[in-house]
Amino acid sequence: MKNFFVSKSRRIRSTPFTSRIERQGVKSYTVYNHMLLPTTFSSPEEEYNHLKEHVQVWDVSVQREIEISGKDSYKLVQLMTCRDLSNSSVGRCYYAPLVDLHGKLINDPLIYKVEENKWRICIADSDVLLFAKGIAETKEFNVQIKEADIDTLAVQGPKSFKLMSKVFGEKINNLRFFNFEYFVYNDYKYLISRSGFSKQGGFEIHIDNIEAGLRLYDYFFEIGNEFNLKPGTPNHPERIEGGLLSYGNDMDLGDNPYECGFDRYINLESDIMFLGKESLKEIEQKGVSRKLMGLKIETNSLVVNKWLPLLNKDNIEIGELRSGAYSPKFKKIVGIGMVKKEYCKEGENILVNSDGKILSGEVCNLPII
Amino acid sequence: MKNFFVSKSRRIRSTPFTSRIERQGVKSYTVYNHMLLPTTFSSPEEEYNHLKEHVQVWDVSVQREIEISGKDSYKLVQLMTCRDLSNSSVGRCYYAPLVDLHGKLINDPLIYKVEENKWRICIADSDVLLFAKGIAETKEFNVQIKEADIDTLAVQGPKSFKLMSKVFGEKINNLRFFNFEYFVYNDYKYLISRSGFSKQGGFEIHIDNIEAGLRLYDYFFEIGNEFNLKPGTPNHPERIEGGLLSYGNDMDLGDNPYECGFDRYINLESDIMFLGKESLKEIEQKGVSRKLMGLKIETNSLVVNKWLPLLNKDNIEIGELRSGAYSPKFKKIVGIGMVKKEYCKEGENILVNSDGKILSGEVCNLPII
Fold it and tell me: What ipTM does the predicted assembly reach?
């Protein structure tokens, strides 16, 4: 595939770390929430192997945080998600599908309950702020809605625990998965969650002060050598194998949360109020006809920048391959696809139509192990 | 400025014309409404000169069209915009600022009234679909909201009239500015508007059938030689000189339509209902303290990928430069900036702080002539 340059403008915002990662040799970007997301420093394969053994710092400032505060903030947040947040606790993050009236996916954010009446919705790539505004301003809710001035660094990989405790002290290793707390470095308090878009363990640091963020960034790379620290990015083969979904790639407004395997985040039995409740009840009753599944495809190289048709042995379309990347572990392409229910079985043989070239593959469960 | 590659994935959609423009030598992209927008084939200067003399075809499929239909469609569209659409006509396009409850800008689309109860909102770069959904699904409006399967080709430049009449017949030249009609080529009916993001005249072709769109695209380049037709893109210096604003660059959710010079699209005296009406009344009464203005800056080269502070002669900040590009006409940088009211005078001297480098310039009216 030929390479093309990205044009920068203010509409596609840089992050506070952009100039640093450019000095560190970033090669390519994508755009996510109107902002630059680095995608490679060396190669996805090299970075995959490094991520699984060592530790990386990622500039994931693109995970913009929509802050909803005020008396009606719970009501608004709950209206947008099918996950029951009525018993949620300050200090915890909730992976919570946002759905519209028809039960279709608007986004799949991690929602942080920061205070009793303050939430931060850490969004995937769609303007959740506008959805929240549309609802709140029509309902005349007593809320403030804004994109918070927060930029995020992810520290990911097995050695992230050692690196982070060297900077923030041993007690950071007591932080449990999807919990967050404040930790101090150099007199500044950082909100840190045990979270991140990899399966290798790690943290996300939510930075509300650019000076403090840059100081921290530089300090990581000052002391990081002993952990073989490198700058990195969310890694496609790793996240696909881990079954971490990417909104806009694996699912979008055409899909419902049951099709995406989000069953445990859909709380129809509770008496919470959310927009898509009646629709999801109907969908649940009827059952879904397709699901997101893992896929292994017999080739070393495949460009998946659009959904590619999946076929059965009779060349009948049975779904689409939605993401794909070369896996250094399986030595073939691993992918995520929406698959007709009767083919959603581990080991089921399928074909992929890549612009006329037919590849063979098989269905597998997520995560791909 | 160093160049970086753009990573493609399905989340950043290609258009039906992407493979063609890549064969035609596109060099760079930006991302707009989650889709690829080409930005250069040769150089902005060369394309500026060509656009002003000849004709270009642009792949502007990124101008996604949010279709709102059904019994309550007018009510919904009107709730989002401060422009009075109560007397609007089928066959016309309306440039209409969308505003939130606080009178801040959500988007600045061109709204097409396609049928009595069917509208298409041709959007700038923000997810207006989600704003519309938030309102409609809360109000329980009887509407259907979707992103239409429409991709747009712009034909721009002084020779666009000759090229288009050769393809669609002489009567296309009777189409008036911001009107649209259906025209036939090769047995297919295309919705064509007299519109486009340049001041050189031209049309936009709204393509609802990919095969037909590709046939038309190829035909343009088959017969285009006599008009010196080239593939092109929206041209920054040309659109800045023309005073055509770019949402996300020149203005965003922090600005109100009075500050952007949209006064003639704000109809407070009519009895229409829209979300931001009370806020805009207050703003109008108080008057604004700053406005978008043209700027000329004494340098040949300036990177504006963030807002750059504007200073007065005492080094006091008086606004920001928001867009800038080298103008082959003025042989300097032309720009658009938000300027404190007392400095909003043609010829007013200002300074620009570009990462510590101080440049001199002057304020001018838009369009810059």
Answer: 0.97
